[in-house]
Amino acid sequence: MNAQHLLLQIEGVTKIFPGVRALDNVTFSVLAGEVHGLVGENGAGKSTLMAVASGALVPESGRIVIDRTETRGDTEAARRLGLAIVRQEPALMPDLTVAENLFLGMPAEQRPTLMNTADWAQQQLRQWSDDVAIDAHERVSSLNPEQRFIVEIVKALSAKPKVLVLDEPTEHLLAEDVARLFDRICRVTDSGCAVVYISHRIREVQQIANRITVLRDGRGQGTYDAAGLSEQQIVELIVGGALDREFPAKTKAESADTVLDVVALDGVGFSDVTMRVKRGEIVGLAGIDGNGQREFMAALAGLTHSRGTVTVNGRAASLRDSKAAAASGIRLLPGDRHRAGIFGELSVRENFSIRSLPFDAVKGWVRQRSEARRAREAVLSFAVKTPSIETPIRSLSGGNQQKLVLASVLASRPEVLLVDEPTQGVDIGARMEIYKVLREAAATGTAVIAVSSDALEVAGLCDRVLIFSRGHVVKELRDDAVSENNITSAVLTATTERARGTASIPPFWKWASGDWAPLVMLALAVCVLGLYAAHVNDAYLSARNLSGMLALVATLAIVAYGQQALMLVGGIDLSVGPLMGLMVVIQSFYLNDGSPFSHELTGWILSFGVAIAVGLVNWVLVSPFRLHPMVATLATYMSLQAISLILRPVPGGLIANKWLDTIGAQLGFVPIILIVAVVLAIVLEFALFRSRTGLVFRGVGSRPEAARMAGVRTQLTMLGAYIGCSLLAAIASVPMMAQVGSGDPNAGINYTLASIAAVVIGGASLFGGRGSFIGALLGSLLIIQVNVVTSFLDIGDAWQSYLLGGMILISVALYSKSREMAVAK
């Protein structure tokens, strides 16, 4: 080891959550140049302790010192001092690219220029592996779990940390990537870095750690020299007693009854798979990841299309979708619980019962007593640590989430149980219970098929093992041949591993999921509609019509920019229309003929001051008061409209001609305000993709918690978005003033829905993280064009609503489908 000074000191830390003392006076320290293993059961406090160290959580008492500097509750300060953390669930923003995630993950002084980010990111990825199958330009949402974890590890290593925290770093990694990780750990510790290694895999901890600290129920159980402890001793320290063995005894299947019969099943990633599972046995699927075993399991669960014959207890099974597969008796325990296993905002009770509601329902009505009773029994049976069954499942530790998902799947009484990584993220004490449950399920007649990246687990749990290579079953191991060595040997000698990357995506859908697709499709729609209108009515292309139409486009586009900025961070503002009307009403008292300059200046200052105040009020309602954005801004909508009607019950207060002439100035037939709107769109678009502010906006909308962990001040960003939206609405009211000419309290109402429609048609995500200001401009142009064209074609005003509604539905459906197709399964 290098210089033996403390790089991380945690002294007497206590952390309390509602109903739970997660940490109780815990002391922990790590030396420069050492790997310090941190082990314990799920809920023991390991991840909580590291969250406190990283500043993500603030403890009730205690102190945290990083490289001789005390810090507390400040993630950015912890990063600046040199602490980097790889979390059990990667803290990545799915709508950002790999390069953008790596950029935000760096301390400010270590970041490259944004123009050079992609090349820099690809270089960092190559340092992990020369043949890494991850493109820095790809969005994180298109990566599979293994690739996301590699990006998270690369992000931490790229920061050149003094203290590196690895929380379950190998759960999604293949064997060769585990070897790469251990090599990098050795390199960084040789350079003097301190590494905290958190894992349930005791063998890995013994292999890599110098010292080991054990936590149990939020309390420290001592720190030990790793070389001086056996695996059994570590297990006993973790669980607080002796644990005789990890796997239940196998029972030889005497029954000739076939529960599951698969004949010549073909699908994406595998072909011609034939297998049978008899009553009482568990069959394992093994192979290098990407060789068809998980794809085969997904097809059996109805998640992907397949062809072939599948019968369950003699009945033909339908695999057309997951619902049909479940009706046929086939259920899946997903390997990626965060994306496919849990409903984060629902309670423990609801997450448990949702897969087996018929057992609690009478004529469609849920019996809550029955539901609660079964949920409590499952929590006790699976030793799920939770304050109550009404606790949101997202607040539970990863292993406890996994146990509850397993309990939920088993509660549906499946005839075929598909298990992907049965003990992923589960502590050593709970694994044996899960193995017993799976063995009991097989003994009672359920066909159990398991996939695991741990060959020892497959060998200890399964009666037979099928080895997959390039989508085919190439070998079967039975009885005494089922061993860790035989499985590993069969996997490694069956075939060379093929290149891995994201799932194959049809070129059209890959293009449609990108940022340019909405712009191209919108531009095409605008041209086609314009040419058709010009063909039907020559007056459509007259200078008078075009200038009037383009002025309306500019007004809608500018307010749509504000809506777009807010939707990028996951918000929405229903009050923009009444705010625009209020701006015009206010100006109708000040911008009159004969008004002195000071009077007019007061009107402008007051108008924009009101806009800032409205943005601030909306932010307060949404962030500190935690109201839903639609509820908060709907309240503001009604308040602003009421104020406008009080000030001007009927339209009045003519705007001076000098202001109307100035605002309505044209360059040829093109309004100056349209040129301003176009320039503004280009500037905002450039800032969105080429500035840190734009990156922060997209990051917050993509995943706020991950952005916060990356050091982004999410509340400040939200404040800027709400005030910016209101200011842009105020700017948009200026050209609207020239169109109405007086203080009309109802002038801006239609702009609320129109601005949202323009942004949605322009390719924005309703959930945040994606959008385009140029898309909002083109969306505005298309909406105004539709309104004008319907008038020229004399087909009735109702068609404006029909066409606008149709465009919104088509846009949302197309963009949603394309992004769904581009997401790794």
TrEMBL record:
**PROSITE patterns for the chain:** ABC_TRANSPORTER_1, ABC_TRANSPORTER_2
Pfam families, A to Z: ABC_tran, BPD_transp_2
Query: Can you say where in the cell this protein is located?
Result: Cell membrane
Domain of life assignment:
Bacteria
Membrane topology, as annotated = Multi-pass membrane protein
Q: Where are the transmembrane segments?
A: 516-535, 541-561, 602-622, 629-647, 667-689, 716-737, 749-767, 774-793, 799-816
| Keyword set includes Transmembrane helix | yes
The secretion signal range is none
Q: Mind listing the GO molecular function terms for this protein?
A: ATP binding; ATP hydrolysis activity; transmembrane transporter activity
Q: Does the keyword Transport apply?
A: yes
Annotated ranges, domain ABC transporter: 8-242, 253-495
Kindly state which keywords UniProt assigns to this record, in alphabetical order: ATP-binding, Cell inner membrane, Cell membrane, Membrane, Nucleotide-binding, Repeat, Sugar transport, Transmembrane, Transmembrane helix, Transport
Q: Which Gene Ontology cellular component terms are annotated?
A: plasma membrane
Instruction: Report the protein name in the record.
Output: ABC transporter
Organism, scientific name: Paraburkholderia monticola
Q: Taxonomic lineage of this organism?
A: Bacteria, Pseudomonadati, Pseudomonadota, Betaproteobacteria, Burkholderiales
